[in-house]
Design a protein that fits this description.
By secondary structure, the chain is mostly helical. It has 15 helices and no strands. The chain has helices at 3-21, 26-32, 37-40, 42-61, 67-87, 91-119, 123-152, 154-175, 194-214, 217-224, 232-253, 258-279, 283-311, 316-345, 349-381. It is globular.
Length: 382
């Protein structure tokens, strides 16, 4: 793998840390800026909204920009948004910086996915390297951001994210090849084929299942499993380790035998969520399934993104943008479903919601395959 891929993954690590670290900083931000904790939660919603809108929008608006310029521009804006956020004394200003950071993050990730897929032939392995930045953020970035916030104030975490972006900026400037603007102008010619649409829908459903439970993992482990709160950072890290293993395995198999492995992993993911929901009160089962479900969730999600990039190969930037948006639709709607479930039935509900979302994904995949087979048979009959 080219070394620039790992430095792009470093930028993805910084961006994912920024996205997830607010879960550990919300009380400090609320107290410092004199807003309520629910109001401070708007910062997370603003980021999710920016991610959904930003990926396809920047892919289209920047279709005539060279990828190198787009990567440099979006990462620079992301860095500056964190500098302004770290200096902000007004909640509205901080809210705007989160929206701007998410827009640039989404655009960067869309173009980075496309760039990675052109640097090497194995799109699955390249995607896995980039998404490893997200999983490493779960393992190290989020706990580190929470620790910095507790020791030095929430602003220190924002400064840290900005500093982590600097090596990636230098790497992009020095290592990504220059290209003419016309080389990227074909982005608008992507046709949303049924296969691409199905893959994006599956990505949204699977990621929705992942974030439905991940968002509420702490109350599940404390109120259902009965663990002390001191266990939570370690178990969140365990989930991150599983997700890292998942994208690594997906990178190995996404470029060959993808459909068979994906089908088996999808069924295993459904079984795992059902087992977790049924056995969440058992400490040993909960600990094991935190790792297993992290592995399966990110393996399936990473493989779906790789297949979407193959399906949209004629316009990889826009395909990457749509894939990023689909994942974040799931990341935004999954926690809503889990929250409604908790209100109606209790803390175990997100696990059953996650199972239902994966079951829906399997049903969509089966229906799409049946329709494709029927259309193929009809064509042969003619």
């Amino acid at each position: 793998m080219p070394s620039v891929l790992y430095l792009l993954a470093l930028a993805v690590f910084a961006q994912a840390t920024s996205e997830f670290m607010l879960s550990g900083l919300t009380p400090e931000i609320a107290a410092d800026l004199t807003v309520s904790i629910p109001t401070a939660g708007w910062l997370t919603s603003a980021f999710a909204l920016g991610m959904v809108v930003g990926a396809p929008a920047i892919a289209v608006l920047g279709r005539r920009w060279p990828r190198r310029i787009t990567l440099l521009s979006t990462l620079t804006v992301f860095l500056l948004a964190h500098v302004v956020g770290a200096l902000a004394d007004d909640f509205t200003v901080l809210l705007i910086t989160r929206l701007v950071a998410a827009l640039s993050n989404a655009g960067f990730l869309a173009v980075a996915l496309a760039t990675a897929s052109t640097l090497v032939e194995a799109k699955g392995r390249a995607t896995a390297v980039l998404l490893a930045g997200t999983t490493l953020a779960c393992i190290a970035g989020v706990p580190a951001g929470a620790w910095l916030g507790q020791q030095f104030g929430w602003r220190s975490a924002f400064w840290a994210v900005a500093l982590i972006c600097l090596p990636a900026l230098v790497a992009i400037f020095r290592s990504i090849p220059r290209e003419s603007a016309s080389a990227t102008s074909a982005v608008v010619r992507l046709r949303p084929t049924p296969r691409l649409v199905v893959l994006l829908a599956l990505g949204a459903l699977v990621n929705g299942a992942t974030f439905c439970t991940f968002t509420y993992l702490a109350p599940i482990l404390t109120d259902v499993t009965g663990l002390e709160r001191s266990w939570i950072p370690a178990l969140l890290m365990l989930f991150g380790l599983g997700s890292f293993a998942g994208v690594t395995l997906a990178g190995r198999y996404a470029d060959r035998q993808a459909h068979g492995v994906l089908a088996a992993a999808g069924v295993a993911l459904l079984v795992g969520w059902c087992a977790f929901a049924w056995s969440a009160h058992l400490t040993a089962a909960a600990v094991v399934l935190v790792f297993v479900q992290g592995l399966l969730s990110f393996a399936v999600g990473s493989a779906l993104i790789s297949l979407a990039l193959y399906a949209g190969a004629e316009s990889p930037v826009l395909a990457g943008g749509l894939a990023t948006a689909a994942l974040n639709v799931g990341a935004a709607l999954g926690p809503v479903a889990g929250g409604i479930g908790i209100t109606l039935t209790g803390d175990r509900a997100p696990l059953w919601c996650s199972a239902a979302l994966v079951a829906s994904a399997l049903a969509v995949a089966a229906a799409a395959r049946a329709l494709a087979r029927t259309a193929r048979d009809a064509t042969v009959a003619r």
